[in-house]
Specification:
Strand content of chain A: over 45%
Distance between the termini of chain A: 53 Å
Strand order of the largest sheet of chain A: 6-2-3-4-19-18-17-11-15
Structural class of chain A: mainly beta
Oligomer: heterodimer
Number of strands of chain B: 2
Mean pLDDT of chain B: 92
Distance between the termini of chain B: 32 Å
Number of strands of chain A: 20
Structural class of chain B: mainly beta
Mean pLDDT of chain A: 96
Largest sheet of chain B: none
Number of helices of chain B: 0
Radius of gyration of chain A: 20 Å
Largest interface: A-B, 25 and 14 residues
Largest sheet of chain A: 9 strands, antiparallel
Low-confidence stretches of chain A: none
Strand content of chain B: 25-35%
Chain lengths: ~260, ~15
């Protein structure tokens, strides 16, 4: 059976908010190392890969591998009943028809219990190759969200270029063009504001802003975001969570003239 | 114009 207790319901609420535009139905794969999820969007352009390590829960128990096939819209409806600060416990039998969610407030004078029906989802898993990315950029997630939003007003696509000058986000549309350059920045007192650029070779790739805008829905999960790029491979956008848990998005580039 | 690639062109099905 599965029993996984989260100190704050906010984490699961934010995870579901972050992925439900991209994916409507998916399996939450539970095993003794934690709860994972991998799913493509309908058009097979983007992929989300999330893993909440067992250490992110206290306690965590999962005796055997269990796939919880969940409609994220339905899960969100149930999670709306949880306050951000509630303690959230997920429970499921070994071959479950439902997942049980319990929300307790901090003073333990309210306990809400919900059963969410599960569905059979035949989901393909993709092997994500280990990649030595040519460029890695860490920046405030709010900054990335702002850049994505601002450029979306101009164009459908953005070209992210990384060279020894720094990183630039450029786009061109009917009304004109825009370009945002970021340079390395270190603030010892406020590391959340740091911009770090690590590059082994120059990279320039073009991506659809619509998907980047979707990824930015995860901004509330982490103050920093990491962009990893190599020429002619999907972009990885990573929001690191506590206890080595993570939510990663992959986006196939636009290629060719 | 550039064309949007599929993620399946990069990551193989397991």
């Amino acid at each position: 059976m599965l029993e996984a207790r989260l100190e704050q319901a906010a984490l699961l609420k934010k995870v579901v908010d972050a992925i439900k535009e991209l994916v409507q139905e998916c399996n939450f794969d539970c095993n003794d190392s934690g709860i994972g999820l991998q799913a493509m969007d309908n058009s097979h352009v983007a992929l989300v890969s999330m893993f909440l390590k067992s250490e992110s829960f206290s306690p965590f128990r999962c005796d055997r591998n269990i796939a919880l096939g969940i409609n994220l819209n339905a899960l969100q409806k149930v999670l709306r009943a949880a306050q951000n600060e509630d303690i959230l416990t997920l429970k499921a039998e070994d071959a479950p028809d439902v997942v049980n969610l319990v929300f307790e407030n901090a003073t333990a004078d309210r306990i809400s219990e919900y059963d969410l029906k599960l569905m059979d989802i035949d989901q393909e898993h993709l092997g994500i190759p280990d990649t030595d990315y040519a460029a890695q950029i860490s920046m405030p997630s709010s900054e990335f969200q702002r850049i994505t939003r601002d450029l979306s007003a101009i164009s459908e696509s953005v070209t992210i270029e990384c060279n020894k000058e720094g990183v630039s986000f450029a786009c061109e549309g009917d009304i004109g063009k825009g370009n945002i350059k970021l340079r390395q920045y270190t603030n010892v007192d406020k590391p959340a504001e740091n911009v770090e650029v690590n590059m082994t070779e120059p990279v320039a790739l073009t991506f659809a802003l619509k998907y980047l805008g979707n990824f930015c829905k995860a901004s509330g999960l982490s103050e920093q975001v990491r962009l990893c790029l190599s020429n002619e491979v999907p972009l990885m956008v990573e929001y690191a969570l506590a206890n080595n848990s993570y939510i990663r998005f992959y986006l196939a580039p636009k290629i060719g003239d | 114009d550039r064309s949007q690639k599929s993620i399946l062109g990069f990551f193989q099905k397991k």
